[in-house]
Design goal:
479 residues; alpha/beta; Immunoglobulin-like; TIM Barrel; 2 domains; 8-stranded parallel barrel; 4-stranded mixed beta sheet; 22% strand
Length: 479
């Protein structure tokens, strides 16, 4: 988790800003002209069809439509009729119909028409591990399908500790505020793998993962694993040779790293629920590879080296160690405004056959323009590759805004087909109020009421809202 400063030309920023902001309201005329519409917002079904709008105006107007799927369909001047085509896509869409004074193009009233998404009809999804367990296959299909309904709220380490508590049975800052657990529980696998593997905290990690699984929640794991060349932490990017050595057959760095992957495989292959079934995990390895901070990041690897690292890690776990309960997620960091955000999402892409889930770590802060643009790009790449997607890390450190959730999380995600938004952790600080390392709500935070309002929304899903994520939904095949 690390932010990056993105520098863009002013002209590019201005263009994006203009495209992402709402149009300015029409000026009110100083004379006696008036126009009113029977509705300024209208929702229509996915099948389309004709609809009417009541118009009262004391001047002659013309109609402007900004989308090709809506057209004029006759009617009278007082009740003009329009026709909408059926929506062929699994995404909702909107259109603006503007009623403009023929003598004055600056005076108008506007109707926004929103058409429902055409729910995904199922079909076939590809998976990296052709021998994945039935539950893991089902999870992949449900990650795709659930985006028709909304997105899952997630929180890193939420069940392990919170701002004022640590390792308490049933603990959760999320539950303490809204009465429900997150739908996605995020953890870190780094300490399972490297020289910290004997830490007592790994027993807690296993316990809370199994608790999340018993409630039917989704488990996702990143890995802040140490540098296998130097033994220092994952932020040690002092050597550009670490991945090169890791890829060199028989090298000391490779042998050391393989022993770390052995520990991870042992953990995964013994992670079983109360029925004896392996627990599926969305494994978000080598996250934020677009950044320079890590030993696997952009400053320590070439594109080819990163792609090979990604592929041989999967091959070792899947083919040699027999780990068949992982879905593999890629997650570039997408904090700012980019000239080509889709290209950044595909940065050093290892190949469609090597990715199950497309994530992004987006610490956009209060920059809704950046968040909206990157969500749109994420959704587009997801649709093109037919792979589920979501925000795998998010949040604003030490935020205090009372309307944070509705303004900076809910509003930008409106209409976006994503599976999750996962907040980074609330560090356990005890009574140390000077430590402000938190990224989500907790009891006593100014945004509590706003968080509960978000919890009440149909399109924001928490633990109790989840369908059975581990049974294959009807009409889907994963292969």
């Amino acid at each position: 988790m690390l932010s990056a400063k993105v520098i863009i030309p002013f002209a590019l920023f201005l263009a994006c800003a203009l495209s992402c902001t709402e149009p300015a309201p029409a000026p009110v005329p100083s004379d006696g002209r008036s126009i009113s519409l029977s509705a300024e917002e209208m929702e229509i079904g996915r099948d389309g069809g004709a609809f009417e709008v009541g118009v009262e105006a004391n001047f002659e107007y013309r109609v402007s439509i900004d989308a090709s799927w809506v057209s004029e369909n006759g009617g009278s001047e007082a009740r003009p009729s329009f026709k909408a085509e059926a929506n062929p896509d699994i995404f909702s869409r909107s259109c603006r119909i503007r009623f403009i004074d023929k003598a004055d193009r600056y005076y108008y009233k506007e109707l926004t028409v929103t058409q429902a998404a055409n729910a995904d009809a199922g079909g076939t999804l590809g998976i990296v591990d052709k021998n994945a367990t039935p539950e893991t296959r089902a999870l992949l299909a449900n990650l795709w399908k659930i985006a028709d309904k909304g997105w899952m709220f997630g929180h890193h380490d939420d069940l392990w500790y919170g701002r004022y508590w640590y390792n308490e049975a049933g603990g959760s800052d999320t539950r303490a505020v809204c009465g429900d657990y997150p739908a996605v529980f995020s953890v870190d696998f780094g300490e399972i793998m490297d020289d910290r593997w004997q830490n007592s905290s790994n027993a807690i990690r296993r316990r809370v993962i199994l608790e999340a699984r018993e409630r039917g929640e989704v488990i996702m794991a990143c890995m802040h694993v140490n540098n296998p060349k130097t033994g220092k932490d994952s932020w040690d990017n002092s050597s550009a040779e670490v991945v090169k050595e890791l890829l060199t057959e028989g090298s000391a760095t490779q042998n050391r790293y393989r022993s770390w992957l052995d520990r991870l495989a042992d953990f995964a292959n013994n992670l079983k629920d109360s029925k004896g079934n392996l627990v599926p995990v969305i494994f978000r390895m080598y996250h934020e590879h677009t950044q320079e901070w890590s030993w696997w990041g952009s400053s320590c690897t070439t594109a080819s080296e990163f792609q090979q690292l990604w592929q041989i890690t999967i091959q070792y776990l899947r083919d040699y160690k027999g780990v068949h309960n992982f879905l593999y997620a890629i997650s570039p960091q997408m904090d700012g405004i980019y000239a080509n955000p889709q290209e950044r999402i595909r940065y050093r892409w290892p190949g469609d056959e090597w990715v199950d889930f497309i994530g992004m770590d987006c610490y956009h802060g209060k920059n809704n323009l950046a968040f909206s643009a990157n969500l749109k790009a994420l959704e587009a790449v997801s649709a093109a590759k037919r792979k589920p997607c979501g925000v795998t890390e998010d949040g604003l450190e030490s935020f205090t805004q009372a309307d944070y959730w509705s303004r900076y999380i809910v509003a930008p995600t409106e209409g976006r087909r994503i599976s999750m938004v996962t907040m980074w952790r609330n560090k356990y600080v005890g009574n140390d109020e000077a430590d402000k390392h938190y990224f989500s709500v907790y009891p006593g935070h100014p945004s509590e009421d706003d968080f509960r309002k978000m919890r009440a929304l149909d399109r924001v899903l928490f633990s109790k809202d989840l369908p059975d994520m581990y049974t294959m939904p009807a009409g889907y095949e994963v292969k």
